[in-house]
TrEMBL record:
Compartment(s): Membrane
Protein's organism: Streptomyces antibioticus
Membrane topology category: Multi-pass membrane protein
Protein name: Sulfate transporter
Record PANTHER family: SULFATE TRANSPORTER
Keywords of this entry: Membrane, Transmembrane, Transmembrane helix
InterPro entries hit by this protein: SLC26A/SulP_dom, SLC26A/SulP_fam
A Pfam short name: Sulfate_transp
Domain (SLC26A/SulP transporter): residue spans on this chain: 17-382
Domain of life assignment: Bacteria
Length: 492
């Protein structure tokens, strides 16, 4: 019997699976978009705008077919600092410049090089962000104003919690936020039938019901309307790009957003057996999305592992699922904006506290400490530096430490001494002789008998830098001044 083509089914063979997955991703993304926006100090609707652009713009482009983009908890701290320092109108300029830089890097095929960044630095960066995010959101849980710096946030927590204990409003807010965190922690342990509803949506929905039923005196999301929240950069704001401090912020946004997106792509590739990520194209796609977000004055976007993993686990097969999820966000923002006014801020803070805790790799750090203590040290120093010094400075410190560690690890040097009791002492150097190992080399050579001739064989060296060469020549001259025969060097 002849088979007649079915245009919709044949052209989109996985539409049913992608449609179902898009609904799951939408339900996961909705509370996260709102929470990231509120925590970043911008109108909640701007988080939805970034999520919409992540689906409808970045989602349509080539790169990583199942990765989902939107506002990310990993950039929350950096955005909050930028808004406080430069103001909300300049945020669009920063995001626009970030997008243009990402497109340029992708066009120059630099995307693959982000995979060369030490994983410990990236994990340390996310851990530092997570710690600052958790500390900052604790203030939101009690309805208090958070200090500016990461150290001030952490140092001020005990006092803020003591003050909250005497306030009925703060206590109610803290209880609602703590309940939200508890739901998120316990949700994966519930039966599979219950878990068809994504945890973040369930937690926020339950918190809203409790706040309404008990008439709790807690703060709610402020609704301004989607179009009222969108504010394209003004010409005067565009002129601020040349400010030195702003340039540093743009570089930080670009590096962190790009690294997080491409590392997320690598993680998503391990979750499915479909097409692999094209890193340069993915960087261009992220750049295009951020360019549009910048023109709309919205939050920056990255690929988000929580949404991406939900997309894969929900059975998505093509990029149609992430495009559809952007459409659902747009419909929600256009048709149901009043729902936002019933969402308690402590619930969104609880979602962000839970997300921040997942950024801190406690178990991975314990394993890393047992097997690779140097990498664990890089991770910890990067995280602490971000908390103490700030995002950009902390990442630079982490990268510098990782480079130094790599240089140290590659500078393996071995000295083998053969002394037959008579005749010259034979010394064989092998490995990489760099200035980092110079003290060890000199200590070993200076311990050789001063009254015996020495034959130094350096043919086993793969690398001999200028500092080591000069030091060896100086040692050879000193050794020969004792009256023994000159040191004989064999280079092979």
């Amino acid at each position: 019997m002849p088979r007649f083509p079915r245009p919709g089914r044949d052209r989109f063979p996985h539409l049913g699976q992608d449609f179902a997955a898009s609904l799951v991703v939408f339900l996961v993304a909705l509370p996260l978009c709102l929470g990231v926006a509120v925590a970043s100090g911008v109108p909640a609707e701007l988080g939805l705008v970034t999520g919409i652009v992540g689906g409808l713009v970045t989602g349509l482009m080539r790169g990583s077919s199942l990765q989902v983009s939107g506002p990310a908890a990993g950039l929350t701290v950096l955005v909050l600092e930028a808004v406080r320092e430069f103001g909300l109108p300049v945020l669009g300029v920063i995001v626009l410049a970030t997008g243009v830089l990402q497109i340029a890097m992708g066009a120059l095929r630099l995307g693959r090089y982000f995979r060369a960044i030490s994983v410990s630095v990236v994990e340390g960066m996310l851990a530092g962000i997570g710690l600052v995010l958790i500390a900052g959101q604790f203030y939101s849980l009690i309805g208090a104003e958070a200090p500016g710096s990461g150290t001030a946030k952490i140092a001020g927590l005990p006092g803020a919690l003591r003050e909250a204990a005497g306030s009925t409003t703060a206590t109610a807010s803290l209880a609602l936020g703590a309940g939200t965190v508890a739901v998120l922690v316990l949700w994966p342990r519930l039966p599979a039938a219950v878990r068809t509803v994504p945890g973040p949506l369930a937690a926020v929905g339950l918190a809203a019901l409790v706040a309404f039923a008990l008439d709790l005196p807690v703060a709610m999301v402020e609704v301004r309307g989607l179009l009222d929240s969108v504010r394209p950069p003004t010409p005067s704001a565009l002129g601020d790009v040349a400010v030195l401090g702003l340039l540093g912020t743009i570089v930080a946004f670009t590096l962190i957003a790009s690294a997080e997106s491409l590392f997320s792509a690598a993680a998503v590739d391990r979750l499915h057996t479909g097409p692999r990520t094209e890193y340069d194209r993915e960087l261009v796609a992220q750049g295009a999305g951020n360019t549009v977000c910048g023109l709309l004055g919205a939050l920056p976007m990255t690929a988000v592992i929580v949404r991406s993993a939900a997309n894969v686990r929900a059975g998505a097969r093509t990029k149609a699922s992430r495009v559809l999820h952007g459409g659902w966000l747009l419909l929600f923002a256009a048709l149901l904006p009043g729902v936002l006014a019933h969402i308690p801020l402590p619930a969104l803070a609880g979602v962000l506290v839970h997300a921040g805790a997942k950024l801190v790799p406690v178990r991975a750090l314990a394993t890393l400490w047992r097997d690779h203590r140097g990498e664990a040290l890089v991770l910890v120093v990067t995280a602490v530096s971000i908390v103490v010094a700030g995002m950009f400075e902390g990442v630079l410190i982490g990268i510098g430490l990782a480079v130094a560690k790599t240089a140290w690890d590659s500078s393996h040097i071995r000295l083998e001494v053969v002394d037959k009791g008579a005749g010259p002492v034979q010394a064989y150097l092998s490995g990489n002789a760099t200035f980092l190992r110079l003290p060890k080399i000199l200590d070993s050579l200076e311990s050789l008998p001063q009254d015996r001739p020495v034959e130094l064989d350096i043919s086993g060296l793969h690398h001999l830098d200028h500092a080591c060469r000069t030091a060896l020549e100086t040692w050879a001259e000193r050794h020969s001044t004792t009256g023994t025969d000159p040191v004989r060097v064999t280079a092979g």
